Amino acid sequence: MPKSLGYGCGPLLFGPLSEISAVGRNWPYLVSYVLFILVSIPTALVQNESAFMFLRFLQGFCGSPALTTGGASLADVYDQVHLPYAMTVWVVGTFCAPAIGPIISGFALPVLGWRFTMWEVLISSVPTFVMLLFLPETSGPCILYRRAAQLRRITGNSKIKTKQDASQPHLSPKQLIFHSFVIPLKITIMDPAMLFTNLYMALVYSIFYSFFECFPLTYQGIYHFNLGEMGCTFLSWAIGSVIAFVTYNIYLYTAWVPTVKRNDDLGKQEDYLKPALLGSLLPPIGLLVFGWTARPDIHWIISQIGVVIYPAGIFVLLQTLFLYISLGISEFTRGIFACVAVVIARPLFLNLGLGPACSLLAGLTSICVGGIFFLYHYGEALRKRSRFIEA
How do residues 187-200 score in pLDDT, each as one tens digit? Predict the structure, then answer.
């Protein structure tokens, strides 16, 4: 729970920082990752529950730049035609990682204890940090900023500046906070399209986190799996993600990219939402299949089919909505919803029962299906009427 909250809060700082030409992408990656590694050490050693929760929040906060600016780094490297391909690789990685973690911890925890899972995070962080040291800067404004600074040193001409530096004043800490939090929050609340997409992304994201509470109740409580076997059930999430990854890339290769190249035009922003029209139907179907087939008289593999369907749908949804909306506040909203989901999931499933609880969640996602279709057909008109169109 605290880590999800940290993941939500981190983008409010690191997202705007990476857009400053004097900072660029790499410094937020490196500094935050060093802090993440340092925080992971006391997390594995701490004896106090409150301190552990706080350190987990810091882990999420310091580890958030990978989710915050990963898409921006890809956008620096790839053009608009090939960016969706790169985004699918990034998104499938973020989808499969939470599914692999419970498998490792499920078998390690009974033998080595819960602290090993914390040491495991630290050990796996070291190779990633080494790779970060060799990561080239991708931000165009930052590269030009450094080149201008080098030319000023060589020539002694202090008037050499980049176009961005000349047109944008330096922001004070107060102005930075305003631009990174207040403006995105204002846009999110007052723009209907932004509000809907943020809430929809947060809803499907939080339902995934509720699975961490729901799976033990289902596969340990109903099917009497041990901890390791229960962890393996998360493989279905990775399988659904990979199926969606392959299917979406086939769509890009056979339909979207040829159309863009033929017309020499990216088309309307709403064209990104075409796959979401089908993808939005899958989450409620997956939830209903999972919720109503997880019974002692039905084989456990049937409920797993529902779990495969759910991430396949939200993979397509998040992939298209990532391209449709790129506000840091969406990361914050998803983090908050995920945090709340972990708190309420267990009481929800215990009090309502698995089937009714999944029906409630399926109903919420079904309502959003209409929103996606409305946004696809009328999103352009909403954007033209929006006062934040320039923002």
Answer: 667 777 777 887 88
